[in-house]
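Page 47, continued from p. 46.
Same chain as before, 362 aa.
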Amino acid sequence: MSFKSIKFSNQVNPNIASILRKKVKEYFDEKKIERHGNKEMVFKTIFMIALYFIPYGFLISGLISSPLIIFAMFLLMSAGMSGIGLSVMHDANHGSYSRNPTVNNVLSYLINIIGGNSLNWRIQHNVLHHTYTNIHGHDDDIGSGFLMRLAPDQKKLFFHKYQHLYGWFIYAQMTIYWLLGKDFGQLFTYYKQGFLKTQKRTFIFAFLELIFFKALYLFLFLVLPIIILPIPWWMTVLFFYGMHLASGLFLACVFQCAHVMPSSDYKMADEDLKHESNWTVHQFYNTANFSQTNKFLSWFIGGLNFQIEHHLFPNICHIHYKNLAPIIRQTAEENGIPYYEYGGFFNALYEHTKMLKRFGYN
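Result:
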């Protein structure tokens, strides 16, 4: 089953992409700075990796015996997982962390040590989500199966009217689902659709790599703590699961507040797989920003509160998004294109909740 790509129209705002590229280039030329990361990114990388591995070091040192402190270490690791995924691995897989491809490639594998898979991420996120944002059947980020309805073209079931209540529990399973199930299913699907060839990977190599890193991760972060920690095995499993629940919920909230929002238009392609919108315009209509003045949140989540800037320029490191935002907002306004913002993070969550409820009933 080969993947069928969608062809976007260039009849509406045909010059918007070139205008944006020109203005962004002028910004970097004027400032005489690189589009990639800098010392700030190096510090953030060290911090996030330390936030993940230092608590882990305490766990396997055998020096901690209190269940409460052990659980606290797992929660700190959860924050490290989220920080690595949002602030380091994300840029590396987009090739925006460094001008050196080797650095990007090495750091892209950080997702493998938090339970995910770099190859699947690049296909799901870089190729499908960024190209076909909010298009049902093409964007895997809204393809959550039958348990939730995240787009108007998805089938509505009777229990979806409660998804604004139970959906948070589903979101919390995100990273544990990647670890134990989703990555395997995706690899087979992407192989059948021909995506592995575009990534210059054979199925056998990709499958063996997937098995190796999953086994390594489970041994280091679950089996070894079960052996070493002076608490019942089931408590270690519960704490490990809690680590993934906390990280999964946070990651899902960040991503969903950028796309599954009242402003998104969810326009589909026609039967001939032709989309009426210009790709750049489509991104404006299906992406939203939030918490743009919250410096700490923006720092921790890798600038993904500036999601519009990220979708338009994923090859630019996130540390530049806050400065590019006024340029992109002004350009959108000058060309009659909406630029959606939702205020603080909790307000964005509230609007997302209303969207879940709307899709459950309408």
